[in-house]
Design brief:
Distance between the termini: 56 Å
Order of helices and strands: HHHHHEHEHEHHEEHEEHEEE
Number of strands: 10
Bound molecules: S-adenosylmethionine
Radius of gyration: 20 Å
Strand order of the largest sheet: 6-2-1-7-8-10-9
Largest sheet: 7 strands, mixed
Structural class: alpha/beta
């Protein structure tokens, strides 16, 4: 092992490899991220330096090393009810008209996509909102809803599917009343109740792949993931989302993201102090 840090050439090779396989775009100031996150895999694979490691990854015909590299490079930071307003808007403004359509026999179900679900806090927060909504809306049942939750990271998805969270994770944004209603405490971990878990279908999905395999949705949460991507890839994803959203369907991005200058198929709306988007059916969202 050389004991030297990553060289500029090695950084550029690995940076391009990572962007090609998952869209994550790293500026030169992020060379340390490649060093710190890939050093373990590099050593494990018997490589003396990042150049050898890159060549191994590139020549690896099985997807396994590539998958491990992507898994290591993803940032899975997440928390319950992140930014608060998307979940308030969902419960108070988006679900009531959709539920009314169910009661009037004009629709059978409501489909929601959590497009980068990480370890599950986002889709399970949506699931709790749905259960809370059903408690106060007679005739509307959890079985009227489907949440599809996807992510590229196998390890994040594994944790999400288990639905088990330690105290550190639980402390971040989960209100006490929802914790006691929707979790079962077992020692130092708490497990999400089956009635919330069964609303969510988890699947491994790379946002670089064609989105239409996922079907159509009424609401999409695509939050804190496009921030890692180049503008062209952001444009591609948002226009893909416009195509799979129902006419006038809704999109949530994070509190630090905006579609301004990136996509004009959505109308920005403000409620409960938060920005979200409605697909403009007269633009790309019609189908
Ligand atoms: C910071 S987390 C955001 C989690 C959640 N949406 C939230 O707002 O708390 C970003 C997630 O995006 C996922 N990700 C990154 N690139 C992806 C890609 N190309 N396709 C699908 N998921 C991706 C990562 O694995 C990670 O779990």
């Amino acid at each position: 092992m050389s004991g030297e840090g990553i060289t500029n050439v090695e950084f550029k090779l690995l940076r391009d490899f990572i962007e090609q396989h998952c869209g994550i775009c790293l500026g030169e100031e992020k060379a340390y991220l490649i060093e710190t996150r890939l050093a373990g895999l590099m050593v494990e694979n018997g490589c003396p330096d990042f150049g050898t490691f890159y060549r191994l990854a590139k020549s690896d015909t099985s997807p396994s090393l590539r998958e491990k590299i992507i898994d290591a490079m993803t940032t899975n930071e997440t928390l319950w009810f992140r930014d608060t307003h998307p979940f308030t808007i969902l419960q108070e403004h988006l679900l009531p008209p959709l539920a009314a359509e169910i009661l009037e026999g004009r629709r059978f179900r409501i489909r929601i996509w959590s497009a980068a679900c990480s370890t599950g806090q986002e889709p399970y927060s949506i699931g709790m909102v749905i259960h809370e909504f059903c408690r106060t809306h007679p005739g509307i049942r959890p079985s009227h809803f489907e949440i599809v939750a996807s992510d590229i990271s196998p390890s994040a998805l594994f944790l999400a599917k288990m639905g088990r969270f330690d105290e550190n994770a639980l402390r971040r944004g989960l209100p006490d009343d929802l914790r006691s209603r929707y979790f079962r405490q077992e020692g130092t971990v708490a497990t999400i109740n089956p009635e919330v878990k069964e609303l969510v279908t988890f699947r491994k999905f790379n946002l670089q792949d064609p989105l239409d395999v996922l079907g159509h949705f009424d609401i999409v949460f695509c939050r804190y993931v496009a921030i890692y991507f180049a503008d062209d890839f952001k444009k591609h994803i948002y226009s893909g989302i416009a195509r799979l959203l129902a006419p006038n369907g809704h999109l949530f991005v994070s509190a630090v993201e905006s579609l301004r200058g990136i996509n004009d198929e959505f109308i920005p709306l403000t409620q409960s102090g938060g920005l979200y988007y409605q697909c403009n059916a007269s633009e790309g969202g019609s189908r």
